[in-house]
């Protein structure tokens, strides 16, 4: 899971608590009456209405990007997966590697949508067999991710998927795991990018696809 934390960005405005359906809004209408996912206007940009900003979380001065309203709204969730599928068109790959935990929520349905294999990159100690491990730095400390050693075969072309591209540290670690096992990183795909954090600089010259730049 990439960090979903960032300094407040007015370009991503989330729904008010309760969501449009609980307030009696029409299905597919975004918060505040704007056309949203599943409606007649907005396209992928309409997905912004389903991403909620939580200020001062987990620490003061940091805003958390909460995608649970999007996940909880069927048409919005489907549109997000369709938008990711469109974004990665033209990238040739054999399987998707997604990062625990929110990356799973996008990577697994995208793999099903595209008929590709799925590799979960997990936190240490969660996989039962021999693993490859990569340690890396987070904004607030150190972390590591692991995959089963047989999850990626030499020569496999792997698309790395996560919810947010922030500093790029987690994605770079995932790429190192793929290469450690003899695979090739075909590219990266994200629902959201926090461009101010310049995470792309850590991903080399591989393709990077984003549905919602911020």
């Amino acid at each position: 899971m990439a960090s979903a934390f960032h300094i407040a960005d007015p370009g991503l405005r989330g729904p008010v608590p309760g969501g449009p359906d609980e307030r009696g809004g029409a299905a597919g209408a975004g918060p505040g009456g704007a056309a949203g996912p599943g409606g007649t206007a907005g396209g992928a940009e309409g997905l912004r209405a389903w991403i909620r900003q939580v200020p001062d979380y987990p620490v003061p001065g940091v805003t958390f990007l909460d995608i649970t309203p999007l996940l909880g709204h069927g048409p919005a969730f489907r549109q997000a997966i369709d938008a990711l599928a469109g974004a990665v068109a033209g990238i040739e790959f054999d399987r998707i590697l997604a990062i625990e935990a929110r990356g799973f929520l996008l990577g697994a349905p995208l793999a099903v949508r595209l008929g590709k294999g799925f590799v979960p990159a997990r936190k240490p100690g969660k996989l039962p067999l021999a693993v490859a491990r990569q340690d890396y730095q987070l904004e607030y400390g150190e972390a590591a991710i692991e995959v089963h050693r047989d999850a990626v075969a030499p020569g496999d072309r792997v698309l790395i998927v996560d919810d947010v591209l922030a500093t790029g540290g987690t994605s770079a670690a995932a790429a190192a795991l793929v290469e450690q096992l003899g695979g090739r990183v075909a590219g990266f795909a994200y629902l959201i990018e926090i461009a101010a954090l310049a995470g792309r600089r850590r991903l080399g010259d591989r393709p990077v696809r984003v549905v919602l730049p911020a």
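Helices lie at 19-22, 68-71, 74-87, 102-114, 169-180. The domain at 89-213 is CATH 3.40.50.2020 (Rossmann fold).
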